[in-house]
Specification:
With 281 residues, the chain is of the alpha/beta class. It contains seven helices and 18 strands. It is 26% helix and 17% strand.
Length: 281
């Protein structure tokens, strides 16, 4: 049997990406477009199945988002209202803006619960990203939103955080550069998390409520709620002591222990010291 070319491999994979009837009632989360408006190829991408990224449709969508990101990143000293408008444009969010007040302070107060994004930020599509209220994203964030990416309310992201929901086949014959198929897995960061600077979150990860991810970590697996993880790959260092965790049954000053005045550097430094001791023994 003759060896297959990359073109014939792509044709074989295309045959696997059959047209299927779309579920028109569903999977509409945040600003995501309705399923009935999606091509089968795009629906495959959102479902985490093999799809082709370099189709005219998806290239147009990435170009749209790139231009929207550029407008946001270069906006300069505009009003809070204008920043919210530009951010919603990145997401494809058509939610009507509230009426504008002449008093700028009163007007900006209407957006107190809106996410706060420090430019620059870079996103592939935007329409697959959903943020809760009072989220903060520091500068140089990269979000590859092949599949849905959600960030829960009051979650904080440090500088240079990268969130990659897209991935590629390991077999290079199938991967085949830009001509081959790609795939992805959803990423969900729940409420009240803190993601340190230079963290990388890989496809399929869920970061549980109230978790902290130490700076420079590479998160390859789910993170349990109310835990501190760090490292490459990220591993649990300790539990977070908090009244927010119903399993801990902590009352007001019940045992005098609290994490209220403990920064992430403290438990991570303790973990590093423990690692050094084990190496020397």
């Amino acid at each position: 049997m003759a060896e297959k070319t990359s073109e014939s491999v792509s044709e074989d994979v295309s045959a696997d990406i059959d047209e299927t009837e779309l579920d028109t009632g569903s999977k509409k989360e945040g600003p995501r477009k309705r399923a009935e408006k999606m091509s089968e190829n795009k629906q495959k991408a959102l479902n985490g199945e093999l799809y082709f990224a370099f189709t005219p449709e998806l290239m147009r969508e990435r170009t749209r988002c790139s231009h929207a990101c550029h407008r946001f990143n270069t906006a300069g000293g505009v009003s809070r209202r204008r920043l919210v408008e530009l951010w919603r444009d990145i997401l494809g969010d058509t939610t009507p803006m509230p009426p504008e007040y002449a008093d700028q302070t009163l007007d900006e107060a209407q957006f107190d619960d809106e996410p706060w994004i420090e430019p620059p930020i870079h996103i592939d599509y935007g329409t697959n990203v959903s943020l809760g209220s009072d989220v903060y994203i520091n500068f140089n964030c990269v979000i590859i939103d092949t599949c849905q990416v959600t960030i829960g309310a009051r979650t904080l992201l440090g500088p240079n955080v990268s969130i990659y929901s897209g991935t590629h086949p390991l077999d290079p014959a199938i991967r085949s550069g830009t001509a081959g198929p790609e795939m992805g897995k959803e990423i969900h960061i729940e409420e009240d998390c803190w993601i340190g600077g230079n963290v990388v979150i890989l496809p399929g990860v869920r970061v549980g409520k109230g978790a902290t991810v130490g700076a420079g970590s590479v998160v390859t697996k789910d993170v349990a709620a109310f835990t501190v993880v760090a490292g490459n790959p990220a591993k649990m260092i300790r539990k977070v002591i908090t009244k927010m965790d119903p399993e801990q049954n902590i009352g007001d000053n019940e045992d005098g222990s609290t994490d209220a005045h403990v920064g992430a550097e403290e438990p991570m430094a303790d973990a590093a010291d423990g690692s050094k001791k084990s190496e020397s023994s």
